[in-house]
Design goal:
The protein is mainly α. The chain has 9 helices and no strands.
């Protein structure tokens, strides 16, 4: 399958994740009398990954996240040579989604700015006022767990066709736990788009939301390889993984 198709799928999947997830936070979370709140935003992020996995997973594997792509390289589920194209596509998709979301948000009567714009942060920019170290640890651990679920849900002996569901629900749970801490990233691309438009110090804190998810993804892949991975021949494992699509690998 051509690289352009894969890059397009990653662009669109990350676009949808950022627009759907961050859009729910910016436009719907606090809507007077009908706001969806933390639970709704968490579900929105999970549903974007779930739907994106089944829509775009057969084309690109459905990463939608630079940390996931890096973790899959470490776990030998993805070719390192393809990594740059995937990461560029994911970041561009998130930026495009943030731009569309900004355009929509600015169309409201009486618009006076987007504030935090669903961006991630620590200290004063953390929803609950959590410290940099607390946010760092939270993002590392949550991303590591996310990668463990991805590896397990797409393993050769996992139930075929259910990977996207497990991964989407895992992301929902991650948001339920960590929105108060960091507004939940576990995804450097998702963090980059909103940070470019936020009216806070989000851009100066963006480094953490690249470093922590990548460290967490590497940690999750290493733990899975060391303790949980099945041993299989290269050909049989590749065939088994192919049968799991769509699974947000």
């Amino acid at each position: 399958m051509g690289n352009l198709k894969k890059w397009s799928a990653e662009f669109l999947g990350t676009f949808w994740l950022t627009l759907g997830g961050c859009g729910s936070a910016v436009l719907a979370a606090a809507f007077p009398g009908l706001g969806i709140g933390l639970l709704g935003v968490s579900l929105a992020f999970g549903l974007t990954v779930l739907t994106g996995a089944y829509a775009f997973g057969p084309i690109s594997g459905g990463h939608f996240n630079p940390a996931v792509s890096i973790g899959l390289v470490i776990g030998k589920r993805f070719a390192a040579a393809e990594l740059p194209g995937y990461i560029i596509s994911q970041v561009l998709g998130a930026i495009a989604a943030a731009a569309v979301l900004y355009f929509i948000a600015s169309g409201k009567t009486g618009f006076s700015g987007v504030g935090g714009f669903a961006s991630n942060g620590y200290g004063a920019n953390s929803p609950g006022g959590y410290s940099m170290v607390a946010v760092l640890v939270c993002e590392i651990v949550m991303t590591a767990i996310f990668l463990l679920v991805i590896f397990g849900a797409t393993a050769r002996n996992a139930a075929s066709g259910f990977g996207g569901l497990a991964i989407g629900l895992c992301l929902t749970l991650i948001h339920l736990v960590s929105i108060p801490v960091s507004n939940t990233s576990v995804n450097p691309a998702r963090s980059t788009g909103p940070a470019l438009f936020a009216q806070t110090g989000a851009l100066s804190e963006l480094w953490l939301f690249w470093v922590a998810p990548i460290v967490g993804a590497i940690l999750g892949a290493a733990i899975y390889n060391a303790l949980l991975a099945e041993q299989a021949s290269g050909s049989s494992q590749s065939e088994a993984l192919a049968s799991k699509v769509p699974a947000a690998r």
